[in-house]
């Protein structure tokens, strides 16, 4: 049913408008009395329970940051079978993001290009919504992804991240520092170890007991990936998210002229699969066994998720696959994973 709806309706609609149309539907799935009914149809098999970051996740598969920017869909996404929801990216200062259009589908490649620019209602609003979600759906594992406010200069980024941390860390099960989005000027420069160290130290101290992770780009060189991973271990972080979107445009089926017309932005989806898997393996080789790695990028099927788990990921996230697979995506993934574990 969903593939037909996608081909006949969503594929002909502006991607951002389509996303906003489905938000109230997903939110409705998380409201009583629909939530327990939907969850009964989608709940992960108990064999998938996964300990990580001081919590037990119902499934290792969750929603990556970017899908629920303002923490308004977490209860509905939990009802649909996801093991965790990472909200955001949120910033201290509410911001509209980049001018539209800023989200594009590459349907033959099962990919997206986005240059959203951290459009969100601000960390304070996200914190209030996270608190409500924690009260109403206590089993939902909620992560919060924080980024730099656009109006803040890079040299003042640390203070900006610390402010967001103080607002949301107490309401989140874990916190992710996003220094790897390609859509905020100067942000990726913060991944350099010499600038990343003081930023992560300050956020770590502000986060208190909330597990802290850092999210990196797939476009780093291999030695840079390993250096950031070692830094995260040295600073006592709980883990690392590998990876964000890529600025590369290699190996696409869509013709180069069409892709160029879409403009700048981060590429996500199937074309990212190979590189994100490479980065995962580099990180796992550089960190201790008890260091948590959340794998993301190019994940669409249960085979993709299992491949990341076999390569050393503790948890796996997806986003773009939701666009192409629809609301039963998590159930499909979970059933495929459970079948493998029961063989």
UniProtKB/TrEMBL annotation:
Pathway linked to the protein: Pyrimidine metabolism; UMP biosynthesis via de novo pathway; orotate from (S)-dihydroorotate (quinone route): step 1/1
Keywords: Cell membrane, Flavoprotein, FMN, Membrane, Oxidoreductase, Pyrimidine biosynthesis
Top-rank taxon, per record: Bacteria
Biological process per Gene Ontology, one example term: 'de novo' UMP biosynthetic process
Leader sequence residues: none
Binding site for substrate: 69, 114-118, 178, 183, 244-245
Main enzyme class: oxidoreductase
Active-site residues, record numbering mapped to chain: 181 (nucleophile)
PANTHER family hit by this protein: DIHYDROOROTATE DEHYDROGENASE (QUINONE), MITOCHONDRIAL (PTHR48109:SF4), DIHYDROOROTATE DEHYDROGENASE (QUINONE), MITOCHONDRIAL-RELATED (PTHR48109)
Role: Catalyzes the conversion of dihydroorotate to orotate with quinone as electron acceptor.
Official protein name in the record: Dihydroorotate dehydrogenase (quinone)
Species of origin: Microbacterium hominis
């Amino acid at each position: 049913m969903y593939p037909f709806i996608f081909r006949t309706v969503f594929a002909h609609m502006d991607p951002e408008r389509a996303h906003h149309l489905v938000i109230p539907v997903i939110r409705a799935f998380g409201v009583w009395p629909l939530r327990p009914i939907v969850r009964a149809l989608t709940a992960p098999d108990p064999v998938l329970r996964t300990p990580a970051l001081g919590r037990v996740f119902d499934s290792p598969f969750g929603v990556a940051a970017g899908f629920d920017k303002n923490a308004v869909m977490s209860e509905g996404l939990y009802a649909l079978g996801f093991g965790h929801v990472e909200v955001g990216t949120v910033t201290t200062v509410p911001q509209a993001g980049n001018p539209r259009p800023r989200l594009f589908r590459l349907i033959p490649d099962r990919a997206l290009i986005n240059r959203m620019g951290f459009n969100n209602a601000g960390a304070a609003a996200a914190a209030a919504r996270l608190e409500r979600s924690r009260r109403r759906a206590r089993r939902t594992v909620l992560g919060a992804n924080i980024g730099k406010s656009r109006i803040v200069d890079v040299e003042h980024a640390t203070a900006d991240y610390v402010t967001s941390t103080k607002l949301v860390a107490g309401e989140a099960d874990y916190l992710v520092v996003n220094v790897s989005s390609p859509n905020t000027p100067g942000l990726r420069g913060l991944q350099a170890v010499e600038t990343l160290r003081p930023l992560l130290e300050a956020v770590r101290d502000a986060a208190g007991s909330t597990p802290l992770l850092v999210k990196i780009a797939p476009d780093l060189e291999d030695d840079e990936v390993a250096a950031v991973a070692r830094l995260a271990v040295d600073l006592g972080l709980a883990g690392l998210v590998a990876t964000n979107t890529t600025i590369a445009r290699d190996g696409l089926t869509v013709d180069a002229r069409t892709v160029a017309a879409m403009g700048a932005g981060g590429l996500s989806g199937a074309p990212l699969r190979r590189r994100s898997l490479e980065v995962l393996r580099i990180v796992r080789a550089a960190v201790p066994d008890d260091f948590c790695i959340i794998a993301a990028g190019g994940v669409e099927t249960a085979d993709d998720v299992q491949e990341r788990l076999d390569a050393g990921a503790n948890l796996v996230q997806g986003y773009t696959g939701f666009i192409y697979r629809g609301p039963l995506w998590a159930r499909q993934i979970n059933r495929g994973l459970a079948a493998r574990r029961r063989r």
